[in-house]
Design a protein that fits this description.
The complex is a heterodimer of chains A (about 1000) and B (about 90). Chain A is α+β, with helices and mostly antiparallel strands. Chain A is built from 23 helices and 49 strands. Chain B is mainly beta and about 90 residues long. Chain B has 1 helix and 6 strands. In chain B, the strands form 2 sheets. Chain B has a 4-stranded antiparallel β-sheet, with no helix packed on it. Chain B starts with a strand and ends in an 8-residue tail after the last strand. Classes of the chains: A alpha+beta (about 1000), B mainly beta (about 90). The interface of A and B includes residues 245, 687, 721 and 866 of A.
Chain lengths: ~1000, ~90
């Protein structure tokens, strides 16, 4: 199709053609086209088939306010052709048809509407009930929109997120929004403006009509240009607002593309004040076949010509409800469109200049008339116009029927924020009432129509917002108020929803998404579903992408007519977020793999460490391909190994109240903690269940150093402060977790290695088991050294400054060479500690496991009733409670493999517990494990029946309960 | 969860910087002479008020302070304490 000559309003580059395919046919569009306009320019009129009746559908509003132009683009279903920017090489396919799009084999369903009254699927097919699955399958196959291709790989990492703060966030970049943003930015407030279309300007963008002697598109361009000079103003285009949430949080989805690093970007603005200036959509006029391809909204027809340089038809009939419609008819006539007739449903109130200009062009304007039917199938070939006073009709031939009943402000964001919409009989708009504080309507949503009033209301809203955020002055505000009061107020609008003579309205569509007609709306009302929220669900109106748009306003009007409700009492259905569809991948986020590295992360990699995520960290699990880590385990038992334990929580607590805080959160008597000695203890929750364990030492007067387990480090400060929040204790808690690295040097040769790197005395007499000592390592690195025994061997845990951790590691590796030192990973540590029967919280405990169940009851200072020890009352009350699961060790009887973690312990058909951990023990030469089992089974020498069913492979194991530790029960090795 | 919370140290911030710490129930009961019933009442039972309630919040991604605010559980908005007049 030939495009119109170049003109300043155009947003397409006619020189730059883009090729794409539709239904495998090669087509051409130009840069700046949407998929929808490129299809239209290539002669495509039927873009999709409707959900229920398989009726042909095409371009309607150009803003994707209904499912009419949902297409599959490059394998992605349900993309809005009307708004989606065209890109070179796009593969576009239609949806929901059988056979061919032009001759859909299921189109016959359109004639069966008599069998499918409102809510038919709720009432038919359910009796007898056993037939429902069969019917459901058939209905689902026939009805629907796009199909998700589950095999299609969605490009990873093509979404981004942006979190902004603003004093004023302006929703909408039309004349009102731009004026608001400009006024607010001038006061110095930080302003964010979000506009859904690719360019600012709103309804000024394509209009050549003049205001003050200058065309509107020029004024719009000027306003947009004036936004450029403010460092405190950020403008986002192609950013559709998806929601306005509590305390003025605005969310939006911004379309990207191949040239950007995102396909879609999630934008979240925390705004002090919000200006809602989202403009309006055209309110559809409902008549017979009002969604036939060839019927479109007057502004869509005008935009095709002015923005995309496409003449929307050859011969047109207009049925309009406001001056914008008359203006479109006049402008398109000037561009070469033959205008057969213009019906205006108003009998008065038209702009006289427009009527005169149309008369001069020889166009007949029928006032008090509206469209009653579109003729032709599958495309519009003509129409019937009717007089609203009754009787008279007129047939016209046309290939374009530009119809609307006026406009309707977009107020979805306002209602999400809590405003109520009520029909305003003067403007014919649903306008917000009870607007929450901090939200300022501007432009259409305030009822304004006149361009100067729209701009002035924007300026006022922008200043009000800025003023409430502490910027604009009273004088500025008063001035803006006065300016607006001198301009035309909200204009009189029309209430008409349905054209004349539509009869039952069998094919008069209120909702295009679900094929909801006037007839089904009336049926809903007759059956008692007579308010919009009920009819919406029963009849299927606005449940699709058009929620709040195409059917949102007409449904209450039609229902109001049917039930005789006074117009002033009508309110539309709730428009829920997201206001525009968003990719799930956008909401899921960019998928960053965010993790913390210890100071030894790099050296672990260099040494062949296989990294695994552990909480917020990535740590080496193995140092070889052997997932059982037998060589690493053997080396620790026979020689010496070292492991990075920097992820341990490391804390200092000091001050006069420190001991009281420790007494509160630890279950043991912390008054016995001595300088130079380590005390092992545990923290419980109110239920007496273990939440953390670690060691504590005293490093000075009212000064303590303690460790927390890896997964718990982030919680520790909150935990201490929460449980002492009423006590006003004077203490400081310092989290040293990231400040200090930590290395555990373990094995029979550990002392010999350590002695080589320090001049301090580390002899067994000077540095005993459970001693704490500050020693100097290498070139003067001060290490907090602890003689502990988690893995059951002689071992030293060295806590050193993070920056020196690598140095100390290398020093130990070098010194240990002659003793066959080697690093070991988490798996080796896991097995080594299992052999010692040491528990790991979360592995050998679950939410109900208390201290006593784990055999750690000896830690509890049961005589202390005054410190308020967390969890102590629960231990007291539950100490002898029957039915609790107890931790036991077991040997597996003659098995060649271990049951998985979580395998159940059974007795007949009863579950009597579960396996916490089971592994092969090199030291013992057999499979061992720990399980939580009922008291009845927790008897030494007793048998456990273990059952698991992984991947439908049922397996049974038998085990014998044995005492722990399994290895070196006297603990001689760690006391060496 | 889009609401804001006012930290007494850092000011008004996004909700997701904070961690909830339950409704205000006063300090834990004394352990001497404590009955299981009284303990369960304190640990597990909540008023679940519909309307303004005083509750604890922790500024996890901020200063690390525990503090109380009043929040209307029906609107999920921070509100003034009863009797308090905000400027």
């Amino acid at each position: 199709m030939k495009r119109l000559p170049s003109f300043p309003t155009q947003r397409v580059d006619l020189e730059k053609s883009l090729s794409f395919t539709f239904q495998n046919k090669r087509m051409e569009g130009v840069a700046g086209d949407t998929v929808g306009t490129a299809l239209f320019a290539s002669g495509v009129r039927i873009v999709s088939r409707s959900l229920k009746y398989h009726r042909p559908r095409g371009l309607y509003s150009l803003d994707g306010e209904s499912a009419n132009t949902l297409v599959n683009v490059d394998g992605l279903p349900n993309m809005f052709a009307e708004g989606l920017p065209l890109k070179e090489g796009m593969k576009v396919r239609a949806q929901n048809y059988r056979g061919s799009l032009e001759k859909d084999r299921l189109a016959f369903i359109d004639r069966l509407d008599g069998f499918m009254p409102a809510g038919f699927y709720y009432r038919l097919f359910h009796k007898p009930q056993r037939l429902w699955p069969w019917f459901e399958k058939k209905i689902r196959a026939a009805a629907g929109t796009g199909e998700v291709d589950v095999r299609r790989e969605h490009p990873q990492g093509r979404s981004r997120e942006l979190y902004l703060k603003a004093e004023v966030c302006v929703l909408g970049g039309g004349p009102a929004g731009m004026s608001a943003a400009l006024a607010a930015a001038r006061t110095g407030a930080r302003v964010v403006l979000l506009e859904a279309r690719p360019n600012l300007g709103g309804y000024y963008d394509w209009r050549v009509a003049e205001n003050g002697g200058r065309p509107l598109y020029e004024l719009g361009g000027e306003l947009a240009g004036s936004l450029g000079g403010f460092p405190n103003l950020e403008v986002f285009t192609q950013a559709a607002v998806t929601g306005l949430w509590g305390d003025n949080l605005v969310t939006a989805a911004q379309t990207g593309g191949p040239d950007l690093d995102y396909d879609e970007r999630y934008i979240e603005v925390r705004a002090h004040q919000v200006v809602v200036a989202m403009g309006c959509i055209e309110r559809p006029l409902v008549f017979e076949n009002n969604e036939r391809p060839g019927v479109m909204q007057p502004s869509a027809a005008l935009r095709l010509a002015r923005t995309y340089a496409i003449l929307p038809g050859k011969r047109a009939v207009f049925s309009v409800g406001d001056d914008l419609g008359l203006e479109a008819a006049l402008d398109l006539k000037g561009l070469g469109l033959e205008v057969a007739a213009v019906a205006d449903c108003r009998t008065e109130g038209q702009d006289r200049r427009l009527l005169e200009a149309l008369a001069k062009e020889g166009v007949e304007v029928l006032t008090g008339w509206a469209a009653s039917a579109a003729l032709g199938e599958p495309l519009v070939k003509g129409c019937v116009l009717g007089s609203l006073s009754g009787g008279e009709t007129k047939r016209c031939d046309c290939d374009l029927l530009a119809a609307s009943a006026g406009v309707s402000p977009l107020a979805g964001a306002m209602t999400q924020a809590g405003a109520k919409l009520r029909y305003d009989t003067h403007t014919g708009f649903f306008l917000p009432r009870e607007i929450p504080p901090g939200i300022h309507p501007a432009g259409r949503v305030s009822g304004y129509v006149n361009p100067r009033s729209v701009e002035a209301s924007g300026r006022l809203a922008g200043l009000m917002a800025a003023s409430m955020a502490g910027f604009a002055s009273e004088e500025e505000l008063a001035q803006a108020r006065e300016e607006l009061s001198g301009l035309p107020g909200p204009a009189k609008g029309v209430q008409l929803a349905t054209g004349p003579g539509i009869g039952k309205g069998r094919k008069s569509f209120i909702c295009f998404d679900e094929d909801g007609t006037v007839k089904t709306a009336r049926q809903s009302a007759a059956q008692g579903f007579d308010v919009p929220e009920l009819a919406k669900r029963f009849g299927g109106f606005g449940l699709g992408p058009s929620q709040g748009y195409t059917p949102g306003v007409n449904l209450p009007l039609v229902l109001g007519q049917a039930t005789g409700t006074p117009a002033g009492d009508l309110s539309p259905t709730t428009q829920r977020p997201p206001l525009k569809p968003v990719f799930m991948s956008t909401l899921a986020g960019p998928g960053h793999d965010i993790f913390k590295r210890t100071p030894l992360y790099d050296v672990s990699l260099e040494l062949g460490g296989v990294m695994r995520r552990v909480g917020v960290w990535k740590r080496p699990r193995f140092f070889s391909a052997d997932k059982t880590s037998r060589a690493e385990i053997k080396n620790v038992r026979e020689n010496v190994g070292l492991i990075d334990v920097s992820t341990l929580g490391k804390f200092r607590i000091h001050g006069p109240g420190a001991l009281k805080a420790l007494q509160r959160v630890y279950i043991s008597n912390m008054a016995t903690v001595k300088e130079g000695r380590l005390k092992y203890s545990a923290m419980l929750n109110d239920d007496g269940c273990l939440v953390d364990d670690g060691v504590v030492t005293k490093v000075g007067e009212n000064d303590y150093y303690f460790t927390a387990s890896t997964g718990r480090a982030g919680e520790t400060a909150a935990w201490f402060r929460y449980h002492t929040r009423y006590d006003n204790l004077d203490y400081h808690l310092v989290n040293l977790t990231d400040v200090l690295g930590a290395i555990n040097l373990a094995g029979p040769k550990a002392r010999e290695v350590l002695a080589k790197v320090t001049l301090d005395d580390v002899s067994p007499e000077a540095f005993k088991f459970m001693d704490y000592k500050e020693i100097t390592v290498g070139d003067g690195v001060v290490a907090r050294a602890m003689r502990l025994g988690f893995v059951g061997e002689l071992s030293y845990e060295l806590h050193v400054p993070a920056g020196a951790t690598r140095y100390v590691w290398d020093l130990l590796m070098e010194a240990g060479k002659e003793f066959s030192i080697a690093p070991f990973g988490l798996e080796a540590q896991f097995v080594l500690r299992l052999e010692k029967g040491h528990v790991i919280i979360g592995q050998e405990s679950e939410a109900r496991t208390n201290l006593i169940d784990l055999g750690l009851g000896f830690l509890w200072d049961r005589h202390d009733l005054l410190s308020g020890k967390i969890g102590a009352p629960a231990l007291r009350f539950n100490e002898f409670q029957p039915g609790r699961l107890k931790l036991v060790g077991f040997h597996l009887d003659g098995s060649e493999r271990a049951p998985g973690d979580g395998a159940i312990v059974v007795s007949g058909s009863d579950i009597e517990g579960f396996v916490c951990t089971s592994r092969h023990s090199t030291a013992l030469g057999r499979y061992i494990g720990m399980a939580l089992v009922t008291g009845r089974l927790a008897v030494e020498g007793g048998k456990l029946q273990i059952y698991q069913n992984d991947n439908n492979l049922p397996e049974r194991f038998t085990a014998t309960v044995v005492p722990t530790p399994f290895h070196d029960p006297e603990g001689l090795r760690l006391r060496m | 969860m889009s609401n804001t919370i006012t930290c007494p140290i850092c000011g008004k911030r996004d909700h997701y910087e904070f961690r909830f710490g339950n409704e205000e129930r006063g300090p834990a009961p004394a352990q001497k002479g404590l009955t299981p019933e009284a303990y369960v009442e304190y640990v597990h039972l909540r008023d679940n008020k519909g309307g303004p309630q005083k509750e604890w919040w922790y500024h996890r991604d901020g200063c690390g302070a525990w503090f109380t605010i009043w929040r209307d559980t029906l609107t999920n908005r921070e509100v003034s304490a009863p009797g308090e007049v905000k400027p």
